[in-house]
Queue: 3 jobs
Job 1
Amino acid sequence: MFHVRPALSDEAYKVARHCATLNQDRIAVFAEDDAMGRAGLAAVNQALIDLKRPPIVASAMSPVNSDKVDAAVAQLMKAQPQAIIQVSLFNSSAAFIRKMRRAGFGGQFLNFSVVGIDPLFSALGKEIGGIVISQVVPSPRSTGTPIIKEYLDALNQTDQTPSYESVEGYIAARSFAEGVRRSASGSGKADRAGLQKAFESMTDYDVGGFRVNLKAKRYESVRAIDLVTITPDGKIVR
C-alpha cells in the first residue's frame, strides 16, 4: 500500500502543535471504535510526547459513523478539556459536537481530515462555525498551484463540484500514472514488480507544486498539512 496523503501521525502532530501554540494543555480525544480511531488516538498520544506536552486528560470512543455518542459526551464533559481532537467520520463528529455544545462545552473542536468538510457541513449546517479541520492536500480554490489549475480544468469537463476529497483523488491518480510511466520506461512493461519499484523510488515527486513522498517518515509530511476553520455559512478560512 502506498499513500499520497500524509500519515495520521503527521495530522496529529500538526493539530497538537496548534493546541500548544494556544497554550491548551487539557486535551481530550474523541474517536470511533475502529482501527482508524485507535490509530488516531495513538498518534495524538505520541505527538504530545514528542512535543513534550501534557498527556491527554481523557479519551472516549463511539460506534463508527453513528450518533450514539451520549456515553462519550458524559465521559469527556467530566474531564473538562480545553480542546477535543476528533478522529471520526462526519455522522459521529456532528452528533458529538452538537451534544457537547448542548451539554455546555465551550472549547475547541479539532478534526482529522477524514471527517470531510462537505459532509460535515451538510450534517451541522451553521453549527459548523469555529470547527478546525486539518487538510492534507491543497485547497481546491488555490488556483495559483499548478496541480489545482490542472484539476479544475479537468473538473470543468464534468458535472462535479470542487472538493478537497476529489483533489486528493486526482493527486493519487496522477501519482499512479507517474508510477506506471516510470515502470514502463524501466522494464518496458508496468507489471507488479515494476510498479512497486517505481513507487518506492517516488520519495520526492513534485505533482504540480504538491510533493509526494510514498515512503514518508514520521512527521516528514507535516509541511503539506493545512489547518482550516469553517464559518457558519460554510466558508473555509486558513
Note: The CA atoms of residues 111 and 133 lie 5 Å apart.
Job 2
Amino acid sequence: MSPNQTHIAIASENSYIIYFGDPDSLQISPEVSAAIASACAQVKQHFGTKLIDLVASYASLLVIYDTHQCDHLWAKTALRLILDTPQQVSQNGGQLVEIPVFYSTKYGPELNLLAQNAGLSVEQIIDIHSATEYRVYAIGFAPGFAYLGEVDERLAAPRLATPRLKVPAGAVAIADRQTAVYPASSPGGWNLIGLCPTPMFNAQTQPHMPVTVGDRVRFVPIDEQQYLTMGGLLHEL
C-alpha cells in the first residue's frame, strides 16, 4: 500500500484517525511525511472552525473535530473528499528551519562514544550530523519534542540501557536513526551530543514551536560563546 492509499478509522466520539499506507505495517519515509503534511493543510482549510486539533505521527493523522458544528458523517465525508482529491505533494515541502547546536563532549557526553563506535573523530561526527537535512516525522513524548529523521547510519545508536533521570532542556540527542532536541527538562535515554539555545516549545507564543510535522531541519554548529549569547544555559550532567 502506497502513501497515497489511506484508511480512515473512528478514534473516538469526535475524532478520526487516517492511516497513510498499511496501518499494520508502519512506514517511515519522506513520501509519507509529505503526504501527511499536505493532508494537514487541506484539513485545516476545509474544516475551518469545525476543527479542534490535528495530531500527526509517522504514518497517521488524528483529526479531532467539534461535534457541535458537525457530525461523524460530515467529518468522514469531508476527509474522504480531501484524501481522494489529487494533491501535488513535494518531498521538499515544509519550511526549512535551521537550529543552532553547541556540540560538546562535556555537555554531550555520548559524543565521544558515537565517534569511537563509528571509528570517526568527534569533528567528523559533528560534520555528518550537521550536514544532514532532517524531516520532522512526528511530535510527541512531550510538547515540542520533534522526532527528526533519518540520522546517517554511521551515527545511529541505541537508547541508553539505563535512562537518565534528568536530561536538560535544549539537549540535542540521537536514538537509533532519529535525532531530537529535548524541549524541557525530563527523564530520557537518548544519546546526548550537545545543547541547543532555541526554545522548542513556548505556550505563550504563536506558533508554540519553531517546527511542525513535514518541516525540514538542518543543525548549524555554534561555539560556546555563541550559545550563551543566544540565551543558552550550561547544564552539568
Note: The helical segments are 30-47, 72-84, 111-118, 122-131, 224-229.
Job 3
Amino acid sequence: MGREDDIGPVHIEYNDEVAVVRLARGVTNAINLELVQELHNKFFSIGWDIPELYYFDRRNFTEFFRAFARLQIDLFTLPIPTIAAMTGHAVAGGCILALCCDYRYIAEGKKFMGLNEVKLGVPIPYPVDCILRSIAGTRIARTMTEFGEFYLPEQLLEMGIVDCAAPLEEVLPLSVEKAQVLGALPRNARAAIKRDRTEIVEAQILPHLEEKERTFLDCWFSPEARHQLEEQMKKF
C-alpha cells in the first residue's frame, strides 16, 4: 500500500494521498492514554481499557479523560476527510471514535456498534453526545445513549449511524476509495463546507466541557459505577 509507519499502538499505511490509520493494541484495541495520545499526535476497538483505567486515581483519570475529549473534538473538526472502516466491533470508546469521523463503513454480519456507558454507571462523554445528535437526531441519539444497547449493521444503516455495510474484505478498499474521491475535490472549498457543519457543534461543546467533565468523574468514581466496572473487567 506504499510507505508504512509503525508507531507504538498506532500503525499507519499510506496509499497515495490516503493514510490508513490502524489501531494496534492486540485483538480488542482497548483505548488507554498512550493510544489516545498517539492518535492525537497524528481507528476500531472494544472501547476503553477498563482494567487499566479503573485503577487510575482522579488526577490521572482526569488527564486521560481530557485527552480523550480533545481527541473527539479534533477528529470531528479535522479539515481533511475521515472515514471509519469498522472491520470488527466498535463499541463504547470505539463507537465514539467512529462517530467523530465523517463517514462510517462497517462489515456485514455479526459486527456490533453502540454506546453502553449507561450500563457502566457513567454518562456519554459530552463531545460525542453532541456529535451523535448532529448525525442522527435527538430521537435516535436518545435511544442509543439511554438504553446502552449494541446494534447490527442493518439496524445501524436504518438508524443513519453508518453510511455503508459491506462484506468484510470490501470495507477497507471502499473506505480508501471514498477518501480518494473526497480528497480529489478542491481542498479549500471542501474544508470550508466541513467547517460549516462542525463549528456549530464545537461551539455547543466547548463552553460546557468543564462542567460535563466533573459530572462524568463523579459518576466514574461513584460506588455504583465501581461495581459495574468491576463486573465489566471480568469480560476482558
Note: The CA atoms of residues 104 and 171 lie 10 Å apart.
